[in-house]
Amino acid sequence: MFFISQSKCDLINANFIQSSIEDEKELFNSFKKLNSSAQLHYLADLFNWDEEKNVLEWIVDSPLCDYGTALLIFWRAQPDFYTQFANEAEAGYEKDTYNLLQKILGNYRNEKYREARIKYLPLEDGQDIENNYPDPKWEIPEEFKKGNHGRTVMSMEKINNFLFNLRRQWKEMQRHRKRNKRRENNRR
After folding, report:
1. Closest CA to 159 of 34, 42, 37
2. Taking phi first (over 0 means left), then psi (-120 to 50 degrees means alpha), and beta for anything else, what does residue 111 get?
3. Mind telling me which InterPro entries this protein's record contains (predicted)?
4. What pTM, to 2 d.p., does this model score?
5. What is the distance in angstroms between the CA of the first residue and the CA of the last residue of the chain?
6. Worst-scoring range by mean pLDDT, 9-13, 19-23, 34-38, 73-77?
7. φ, ψ at 158 (rounded to 5°)
8. Residue 163 has pLDDT above 80, yes or no
9. Shortest CA distance to 120 belongs to which of 38, 29, 4, 18?
10. Cα 139 to Cα 155: distance, rounded to the nearest angstrom
């Protein structure tokens, strides 16, 4: 398991998730403070796709980008839709995401993603790995459909949420047990 410190979670949340930073240079300077593959994966996992895709390009271009992270970005872009386009011109206003997908494919073919230590399985992420578009202009590699069996990226935030939910479920079970006991005693 890869662990993301609270300070890095805070940096990512403040600068990329809940941010209103408009200046791309300032945003890129914040990006350069991320110094591990796991941190890039955490950012990609939380990234809002309604925002500019530059951050995702920085991730896939980074020498720190792990194969599992590239797969996460690839599948969350819903690549089957983009297989209907042969090139950027055909993609029209969808060209940014089309280009991002093609960049990931090119990086993969050029063996840029040498590290494959982070887990990403598209089916576990709820992705449809079958191409439902007729007459695709390009194919999704079979290796991408298999995903990557690496280690999970975990943050303090996820651990705290897990513990909170576990406590809540435990208390609910205790309440349920007490209610059943009272009902049983009332029947006697």
Report:
1. 42
2. left
3. DUF4274 (IPR025369)
4. 0.84
5. 52
6. 19-23
7. -65, -40
8. yes
9. 38
10. 34
